[in-house]
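Example record used in the benchmark description.
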Amino acid sequence: MAATPTQRQRGTKRRWPKRVLLTLLVVLVLLLGYGTALYFWADSRLRTTDAFTAYDGRPTAGSGTDWLLVGSDSRADLTPEQRKALHVGNDQGLNTDTIMILHYGDSGPYLISVPRDSYVSIPGHGKGKINSAYALGGAPLLTRTVEEATGLRLDHYAEISFLGLVDVVDSLGGVTLCVPDGGLHDEKSGADFDAGCQHMDGVQALQYARARYSDPRGDLGRVERQRQLVDAIADKALSVGVLVPPWKLIPFLSASLDALTVDPDTGIGSLASMGAKMSDLAATTTVPVAGEPSVPGVGDVVVWDESEAGQLFAALRDDTAIPTFGAN
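Model output (structure tokens):
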């Protein structure tokens, strides 16, 4: 006897929840498999360096988590054409173009710029510009120099090169940066931007972040643009348009993994947490500065305001709200 229309409809209704459940189960399995495969693929691509060493008098661990974020100015992997396009010159030295501390815990996240010309004690080398510590002893000497100068015990280290930064920005399809009134025109960095918010590709973003010679505030103005660029990258990287489509996420992850070097204890989970914090910063600032004198044999340097810098570092160490000292 053939089933009546009512019987067929009842059968369809009974099967419908099962079909939905089966479909959801298949989708969930596929997503879990994709996420797991992506995690292990990314973790296997991480490049590491022994950034920390044990030494007498190393600061004890504070509250919260502290990262040292470093932009290397190495030209070693750049062709002559790339050096020209990026306006980075042919300097064979190996210093750090960018030094930042990212702190998060119960307070924060806070992103603190350390001026590259900060005049500090470099263990075993007397006093000098903080960015020269990398050239003198690589990441281990730089991290020790920062720890001794700030009193903070660093938990993680991440380093990116000129070309790496360009590739990361390009993998995102560029970022939007807002140029202040007056524009930014710097022949040495190649920056040539009128005022206003505008889309920049990787090369333009690097030019914008490296400009300092045409800025009356010099390096202190540049560190603000560096933080602006980091914030723009984090915001776009964690947008739905990048995180959801595999054809957007995988190229970004690939470029980022090729660009980054981290300490051995930093894994994909730590990097993901760091990225999430970078997109939700509570405050950004620069280590308070007392002056910018010229030191014989060293050149123009940045001298910290010992009292205000001490208050800032104490707040980071204790994971409390950082003080406000005015425009920095």
